[in-house]
């Protein structure tokens, strides 16, 4: 594959007898082999008065020493070029086979190497994603592909704005030469520069019907500035002598700047849009649904977040349930039977919910969601919301009242959680203990067992505990390194089942810092909790309207320790004599 450089000289203007203006030039092509080729080319000049833009159309070339064709561009046309040995154009070197071309997800029927321009034209225009394209073969070539290369120009005449490339599939092309592979490459000669605006920015679009109502002086066009059937307001009305002002009862409806002749285009102030600046804009948000533009690139900004309806008369979004916000940018929390989260919880975003997340043992997970800016996987970090329920309530909308939980008295051989703490210090110091995200009052290394027990019991996630010291109840929690170690045993009474270990938050003074060791799950004398933490102790049914347990026969409220009490948890197994008496009464 060779590269080439081009230069243009001998530029001259000529006028034909019919009055057509032409630029004629000599194009020199120099390959990296040092060989220079001269090509003569002429182009016709056209002036599109409706847009005031110069358009250039390639008429043809006269071949000199070798077969090399260059397509000059017609303005606002995307041209695809076929060439033999240039790496930046579409190349064919083959003798048989077929290829296909795809555009915006649709693929043509197979294009044979011997197909003529008319056949290729029909196969391309059969795609629904293409409105109309013209197909031009280079020089005198009559087949899609030739052994020495063919230039194929595809001219988009009805698709406007920046356009994606056609995608070629050369897998069925066959080269006659041994060890040689046919080449197919597609490049963009020029990015489309015609506007791709609703109603050509010269009319009002009805979003429910998709029909344009053109402003005074404009009518539907053919896509090239003349009247036609596109329905796009892209042509001047034949009944109007001339356009002398911008659209609107007053220029730009008083909400914009008029560019004046020759375009008479409105430039609207913030908060207004449309060709005459009469339409109010609605707030934008990250789109809930849209088409990806690249790998991991989607959810662009969109009016009403692409889920609501914009009321253009007032510039406000009407959001469908369950979306909310000025731009319908958030998914609402459940309302329940009352206000948000039934009035018994907090409505939080995904990012906030992540900070509240707990593992199966109830410890904070210390995770984040959406904290990294522009992370594609967490695009909804502040859009989706959920409820965190207050204590005593549960459910996705916090509408259900929680029932008491307790140990199932019908199961035996179970144990309560016991955790062991060893503390050695060089001088008196303070510390705190954390459990399931809650922190104890400040504890002292000289604190006696009863005081530590009372302090831990005040932590809502801990509840009742029993604290004992191996060195005696009044010895102090921590011991000097020169003294026998004190083992602090903490037996959990209220908190049931397998529990997470306590966490120490020690004094920040490193000189006085006590050294702590915490053991749980059966290590060094600790005991893993194996009793249940079950709703209604697995021996009743919960009435979520009232948060009370309806106990099964033979069960009653316990004291949390297996005896009769006021926990209302169905955790007490009635003695046989009481149950037999109840049966006798029946």
From TrEMBL:
Q: Which domain of life is it from?
A: Eukaryota
- Which residue pairs form cystines in this protein? 268-277
Q: Which UniProt keywords apply?
A: Disulfide bond, EGF-like domain, Repeat
Show the InterPro entries listed in the entry: EGF, Teneurin
Domain (EGF-like) ranges:
242-278
In terms of Gene3D superfamilies, this protein maps to: Laminin
Q: What is this protein called?
A: EGF-like domain-containing protein
Native organism: Phytophthora oleae
């Amino acid at each position: 594959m060779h590269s080439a450089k081009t230069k243009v000289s001998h530029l001259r203007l000529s006028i034909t007898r019919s009055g057509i203006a032409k630029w004629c030039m000599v194009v020199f092509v120099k390959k990296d082999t040092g060989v220079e080729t001269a090509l003569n080319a002429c182009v016709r000049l056209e002036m599109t008065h409706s847009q005031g833009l110069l358009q250039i159309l390639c008429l043809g070339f006269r071949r000199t020493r070798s077969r090399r064709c260059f397509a000059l561009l017609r303005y606002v046309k995307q041209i695809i070029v076929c060439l033999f040995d240039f790496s930046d154009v579409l190349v064919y070197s083959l003798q048989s086979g077929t290829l296909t071309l795809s555009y915006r997800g649709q693929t043509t029927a197979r294009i044979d190497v011997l197909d003529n321009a008319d056949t290729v034209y029909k196969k391309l225009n059969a795609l629904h994603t293409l409105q109309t394209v013209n197909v031009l073969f280079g020089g005198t070539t009559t087949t899609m592909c030739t052994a020495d290369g063919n230039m194929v120009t595809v001219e988009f005449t009805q698709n406007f704005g920046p356009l994606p490339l056609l995608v070629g599939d050369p897998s069925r092309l066959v080269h006659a030469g041994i060890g040689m592979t046919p080449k197919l490459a597609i490049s963009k000669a020029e990015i489309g520069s015609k506007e791709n605006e609703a109603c050509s920015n010269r009319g009002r679009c009805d979003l429910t019907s998709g029909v344009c109502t053109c402003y005074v002086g404009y009518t539907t066009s053919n896509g090239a500035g003349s009247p036609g059937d596109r329905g796009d307001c892209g042509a001047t009305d034949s009944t109007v002598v001339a356009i002398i002002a911008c659209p609107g009862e007053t220029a730009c409806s008083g909400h914009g700047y008029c560019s004046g002749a020759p375009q008479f285009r409105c430039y609207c102030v913030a908060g207004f849009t449309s060709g005459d600046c009469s339409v109010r804009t609605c707030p934008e948000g990250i789109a809930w649904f849209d088409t990806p533009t690249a790998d991991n690139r989607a959810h662009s900004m969109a009016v009403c977040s692409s889920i609501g309806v914009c009321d253009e008369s007032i510039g406000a979004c009407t959001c469908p349930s369950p979306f909310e916000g000025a731009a319908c940018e958030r998914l609402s929390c459940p309302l329940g039977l009352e206000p948000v989260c039934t009035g018994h919880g907090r409505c939080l975003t995904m990012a906030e919910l992540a900070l509240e997340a707990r593992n199966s043992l109830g410890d904070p997970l210390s995770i984040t969601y959406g904290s990294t800016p522009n992370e594609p996987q967490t695009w909804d970090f502040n859009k989706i919301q959920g409820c965190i329920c207050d204590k005593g309530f549960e459910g996705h909308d916090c509408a259900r009242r929680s029932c008491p939980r307790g140990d199932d008295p019908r199961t035996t051989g179970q144990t309560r959680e016991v955790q062991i703490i060893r503390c050695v210090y060089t001088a008196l110091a303070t510390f705190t203990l954390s459990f399931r995200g809650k922190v104890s009052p400040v504890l002292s290394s000289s604190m006696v067992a009863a005081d530590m027990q009372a302090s831990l019991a005040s932590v809502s996630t801990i509840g009742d505990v029993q604290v004992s010291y191996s060195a005696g109840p009044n010895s102090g929690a921590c011991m000097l390194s020169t003294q026998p170690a004190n083992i602090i045993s903490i037996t959990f009474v209220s908190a049931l089942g397998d529990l997470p270990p306590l966490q120490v938050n020690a004094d920040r003074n490193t000189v006085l810092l006590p050294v702590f060791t915490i053991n749980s799950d059966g290590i060094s004398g600790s005991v893993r909790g194996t009793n249940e933490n079950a709703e209604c102790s697995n021996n009743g049914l919960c009435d979520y309207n009232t948060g009370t347990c309806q106990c099964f026969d033979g069960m009653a409220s316990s004291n949390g320790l297996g005896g009769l009490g006021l926990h209302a948890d169905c955790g007490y197994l009635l003695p046989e004599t009481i149950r037999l008496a109840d049966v006798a009464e029946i």
